[in-house]
Structure formats: structure tokens, C-alpha cells
Amino acid sequence: xxxxxxxxxxxxxxxxxxxxxxxxxxxxxxxxxxxxxxxxxxxxxxxxxxxxxxxxxxxxxxxxxxxxxxxxxxxxxxxxxxxxxxxxxxxxxxxxxxxxxxxxxxxxxxxxxxxxxxxxxxxxxxxxxxxxxxxxxxxxxxxxxxxxxxxxxxxxxxxxxxxxxxxxxxxxxxxxxxxxxxxxxxxxxxxxxxxxxxxxxxxxxxxxxxxxxxxxxxxxxxxxxxxxxxxxxxxxxxxxxxxxxxxxxxxxxxxxxxxxxxxxxxxxxxxxxxxxxxxxxxxxxxxxxxxxxxxxxxxxxxxxxxxxxxxxxxxxxxxxxxxxxxxxxxxxxxxxxxxxxxxxxxxxxxxxxxxxxxxxxxxxxxxxxxxxxxxxxxxxxxxxxxxxxxxxxxxxxxxxxxxxxxxxxxxxxxxxxxxxxxxxxxxxxxxxxxxxxxxxxxxxxxxxxxxxxxxxxxxxxxxxxxxxxxxxxxxxxxxxxxxxxxxxxxxxxxxxxxxxxxxxxxxxxxxxxxxxxxxxxxxxxxxxxxxxxxxxxxxxxxxxxxxxxxxxxxxxxxxxxxxxxxxxxxxxxxxxxxxxxxxxxxxxxxxxxxxxxxxxxxxxxxxxxxxxxxxxxxxxxxxxxxxxxxxxxxxxxxxxxxxxxxxxxxxxxxxxxxxxxxxxxxxx
Length: 668
Hints:
Layout: H1 2-6, H2 8-11, E1 30-32, H3 44-49, H4 51-57, E2 60-62, H5 92-104, E3 108-113, E4 117-118, E5 130-132, E6 135-137, H6 152-160, E7 178-179, H7 185-202, E8 206-209, H8 217-227, E9 231-234, H9 241-250, E10 260-262, H10 264-276, E11 297-300, H11 322-329, E12 335-339, H12 340-345, H13 347-360, E13 367-373, E14 377-383, E15 390-396, H14 400-406, E16 410-416, E17 419-424, E18 429-432, E19 437-440, E20 443-450, E21 456-460, E22 468-470, E23 475-478, E24 482-490, E25 493-505, E26 513-520, E27 533-537, E28 552-553, E29 557-560, E30 563-572, E31 579-584, E32 590-591, E33 594-597, E34 601-609, E35 612-617, H15 619-622, E36 640-642, E37 647-648, E38 656-660, E39 663-667
Parallel strand pairs: 1-2, 1-12, 2-3, 3-8, 8-9, 9-10, 10-11, 11-12, 19-25, 26-34, 32-35
Antiparallel strand pairs: 4-7, 5-6, 13-14, 14-15, 15-17, 16-17, 18-20, 20-23, 21-22, 21-24, 24-25, 26-30, 27-28, 27-31, 29-30, 31-33, 34-35, 36-37, 36-38, 38-39
């Protein structure tokens, strides 16, 4: 293998035409499996646990850069790409398990690839040394472009005896890390080996290239043609259609395009529709509307670089009609990429939209036709070239007479605020209003017959062994896990079948309870902090009184087993609620993020990781069973339980350990 890697650059000129960047007539839907600081929701283990649900709706899931970056990171400061895959989202074992679990279910994982720039190790142009398949992989100073950081890197190198590349950057510069020169044979060797690692070792299905404006498009073509990538999408961040299609054409090898691109013009059109309150703008040009390029358009409504992050960093979010815009995107050509925040917030409706798209068979080269275009509304029909089926989407405030005219001979299959989705009755299929998924306590399902010939609607809850006649509009209620199969009776056969899997979760009443975060005194040796600050947040807001970093100074202390602890209490307000925490000495130094807290926890500072301290969980040494405190005198209060779960109507009179309000007390 060492010999293969040594000659891979030479082999790059011998290109197979099978690597074409994105499949033609592709019907898949992609999920962007992260948002900014999605450290809890994007854990590899969490995705693995959701594989059955996600794989039913998504064919591709794009995840963050998975190599080690030196601490908490979204992955855009790569440091190790061969030997260390412990990231903010999990370890290498968890990563491989996630990839393989989804692959077995037919869903590919897309890697985020950051090769425009790289993080140095200690010195300005000194990089980590790694080994892959017996060969050394290390960027050197001459792999850095001559004009890096506006000339600052050259000043450093001149003063410290390093040489840079003879070439300036072949694209846009990015300050803060070293921009790589892709003319370098060493850079090319490492990039080829990196793709081999991702695809052939870790098992990724394809890649998303970050900041492809940073280097010439021909290099993306070079890397992809050698790696034989079936799925590749570049982040060419530009709202101009010609600029993006020029980049796509620039990836050609032997006149064959090697990569798709994110459809930023489509996204900016969606934003402008909302900002200008003008639905007619949906006719604006996008990559997906170009018949020659729709195959290579990955459409999206929002991503981690456009979403709202905070009042101090608002970015450029879509401020209204998120669902209507998703319905439009999922009805159009191109490969739609759903944003994780949208999926989490509107899961049931987005599932139904995806199910409609897949029912019709809309693919990345289907052709849309505008049926009505007004400032207040827009109506479009997308026809599939493979099956001849079509999908009508209406968005905005569509007048009833327009609905009646355009939906004539069609059935409504999905609806919500400012959107309607219809399919023709001659689809001859069964349908229902509830997609597969988890529902609290019960689910009510409305059955539909989409038929132009009056076929009998039937359903089954035993996998099709027994069929029961139903009527259009009939409602079925389920309060236990159920697999529902629907179809249309056609003589002795049942055609147009669909299957929905409903998981019923029994929701117990929740009693909010307080939890406390303790940290062993860091103001003494060996840390000798002069103060202790806390910064706490959850998925929606900052929890400290001071909304600006570094948060609040901690003053409350408690002695436990002879040790002094600083502490702060918070309320757990829902069953699945968790929050996150950072300790610091008024900002610096600080600890790494402590994530997913939902019970009392005792911590102490440990070793430095870069410029941040790791923390050690010492709860078992200072708390009782299940991490709850034991050094409090119990108040007089009903509903006490002993450790065997026996309930007392009032506080027990005998000394011992008892549970009350989610805390463990010792009676004295």
C-alpha cells in the first residue's frame, strides 16, 4: 500500500469516467446532521440510536468533520485527520458504529472535509506528524501559500528560517490558520490519502468540501476523480448562479463534472421571499432550475452559517415560513438538504413532505413548471421523467379559487401554514396523514384513497395477512405500537400499498426538580485561581444571570467530606431537559464544556488540554446513589421512599437513607 500511496499523484492523471460527483435522476434526500454548537444533538451515539427513524426518511446524512481538533470544536480547525478521531461528537468506535449502522439501512454518511486550511501544532508553520498505511503524512512549511494571512506568515517565516510555497493562494484567503497550496505534491498526496481514509477505511459514502472558494476547483476534480467519489458537494458560497456553475464546471476531468455544489442562489431566493414578502420571487434563477445543472444542485433553506446563533451573532436566518419553504424545496429538482434544527422542530410535517416527494419519485433532474406566480402566492408542478408522475405545491396565501382550479383531479396529501401539496388521483395509491414515528400516548390516523377509478381502500395491522375495508377519511386510533399497512383493492390484489410504523410513548406526568453542579475548590494549589465563574446554557438560552461571557462569579460554597466545593443550582424542567456548564477564572483559563447535565454532579479540574482544563467526574465519591446529595437534613414533607422504592405517607421516623423530590437524604 505504501507504494500505491507514493505514486497516487501520478495515477491521478489516469481518470476513470465512473466518478461523476453526484448520481443522475437521484431521488434521495439529505439531512444536515448538525447546527452550530450542536454538541449534544450530533453525538455519534445519539444518531446511531435514531438510525431506524432517520434512515426511513434520509438517504444521506452530512455530519461534522470528525477528526481531533485539539478540544471542543465544530471541526473547522482540523489538526489530526489520520490517527485521532476523538472529536466533540464522540470517539472513533462510535463514529464507525454510526457509519456502519446507517450503511446497513441504506443511508450514507457524508463527511465534512476541510482542506482549504489546517491547524498548526505549536509553531506557525509546524504541523502534526501522522502515519497512514505505513507512510508519513505531515504538511510542511512549503505546503503553505506564499501570501498566507496577508503576508503575516511570510514575515514569521523570514524571521524564523522557514520557506513557504512559491505560489500564492489559488483562491480566497482565510486568516487564522494556514492556507494550503494544492499545487504541492505533498498536499495532494495527503489529500488523496485522506479521502482514502474516509471512504475506504472509515466507510463514509461521500464528502462535503468546506470553503471551496479557497482553492482552485480543478483540485476538487483531481481528488474526486482519483477517489472515485459518487457523492461530492462543494460549499461555493455565492448567490450568483453563474459563479456556482462555473465552479462546478471547473471540477471537470476529461470533460466530466466531478462534484455537486450547494445551491446558494436557491437559499437566497428563499430568504428574499420572506424578507420582501414576495412569493413570486421563487421563479428566480437557481442551480436547481437549470436543466443542465440540477443534477449537481444540493438545495437548502438554512445551514449552520446562516442560522440565528445569538443576539451578538445573528447571521442571516430565515425569519418566517420555514415550513412552507421546506415544502417548496422538497417538491423541486436538485437534492434537498434538510437542516437539523428544522427537522427537530417540525419533524412530523417534514416527514410527511419527504414521504410525498418519495411517493411521486421526484428526483434531482425532475422538471418544474410554474402554474401561478403572484406576490402573495406561488404554485408549481414538478414532473418526474422516470414515472411521469407529478407533484403540485402551493405556497403563500393561495386564494381558494386558485386552489380549486389547480387541484382539480388531485388529492391533498400534505398541508400546513402557507403550504399545500397535491398529487393526481391517477396515482392509484393509499395514503394517510400521519408519517411513521413516535407519538405520545396515542395517534389518530386519517386514511385516504388516491384513486381515479374508485378502488376500495383497505388496511391491515398484521403485515397484510388480513385486510379490512375502509372509507376515505376514516380515522383509526392506536394507543400501542402498530405497523399499519394501507392499500387499494384491485380484484384479488392489493395495490398502491404504503406502510407506517407508529411507536407509542407513554408520557408520565413530570415533576420539575433542582440539580446542583459542584466543583472542588480551584482557588487552591495546584490551580490557584483568583476567582471562580460559571457560564451555563441550554439549547435555547443562557442560564447565568450575566448573559455575557464569562457569566456569574460563584460565591456559594459548601464543605463536603472535608473538601470545599463551589456550587450552583438549576431546575430540570422537563424529562429530556439538560443543560451545559463551563467553569473559569473570569474567562481564562477555563474548563472544557460539561455537557448534558440533568442530575447533581461533582467535578474537579484535571489536566490541561490546550488552553482548557479537562474535568473529572467525582460524583461517586461525594454523593449518594444515583448522584444525589446525602449531607442534607430532610424537611418534613410527604411522599418519601426508601431505597427499595417503598412509599411513606410522611417522613420516616427511623434514621437512614431516603429519597424525596429526586434527592437522597440521611435522617439524623
